[in-house]
Design brief:
The chain contains 11 helices and 5 strands, in the order αααββααβββαααααα. By secondary structure, it is mainly α.
């Protein structure tokens, strides 16, 4: 899954494309973009998980999402936006960015030859998550993450009316966001190319907005 501040940046990109064409409450929409990761307790349920095209990875089952998650208000459209980015990030950015070498179970970055075993790569606080700590600072510096939007959002994110999203962790989302923002890791690009990631998110935001406006 992409980092939390990637979801904030993506939400901002999508909002700018949709707001002039449909009624959309920005705070509620941005809240929906955060709820699946920062509020929901059961990630498997909140993300409608199914197996991805690479063994050991999971993506939202978008057929189930389309069937079960009605996009009838700003919050639920935000939830959908979050899951949409998750599915496309994994299948169209994460998986194509690496060589997934099954004989030795290694993940290889073809751009620099760095390689990792899945355990150290995906563990909490490991290589994958530290890569987003680097990228977060770039997203903030380049204005893709609006600190004003984060400041204006409520400490307790609004309920969705769906128990899977409303049975929540005790830690508030703002405390988690503050922890991400406080990290000052310098960008190395050893794992992800920041500029390619931003370009991917911008193209995906256009794709998402076009799909929504056609409905």
């Amino acid at each position: 899954m992409p980092g939390t501040l990637c979801h904030v940046a993506f939400g901002e990109m999508v909002y700018r494309k949709l707001a002039s064409n449909m009624p959309l409450n920005k705070i509620e929409f941005m809240s929906g973009n955060l709820i699946p990761d920062l509020s929901a307790e059961d990630k498997a349920l909140s993300h409608y998980r199914k197996n991805a095209s690479v063994k050991g990875l999971f993506i939202p089952d978008m057929k189930r999402v389309e069937k079960e998650l009605q996009k009838d208000d700003s919050i639920k459209l935000g939830l959908y936006s979050h899951l949409y980015l998750d599915e496309r990030f994994i299948e169209r950015f994460l998986i194509p960015s690496f060589i997934w070498y099954e004989p030795t179970m290694k993940i290889i970055n073809p751009q620099n030859g760095l390689e990792w075993y899945p355990g150290p790569f995906f563990k909490h606080g490991g290589v994958y998550y530290k890569a987003f700590d680097e990228i977060n600072q770039m997203l903030i510096k380049d204005g893709y993450v609006s600190m004003e939007t984060i400041f204006n959002m409520p400490e307790i994110l609004p309920n969705t009316g769906m128990p899977v999203y409303d049975n929540r962790k005790k830690k508030t989302w703002k405390r988690e966001i503050e922890e991400y923002i406080a990290k000052t890791d310098k960008y190395t690009g050893n794992v992800f190319d920041y500029y390619e990631l931003v370009n991917f998110m911008e193209k995906t935001a256009i794709e998402f907005a076009n799909e929504i406006l056609k409905e």
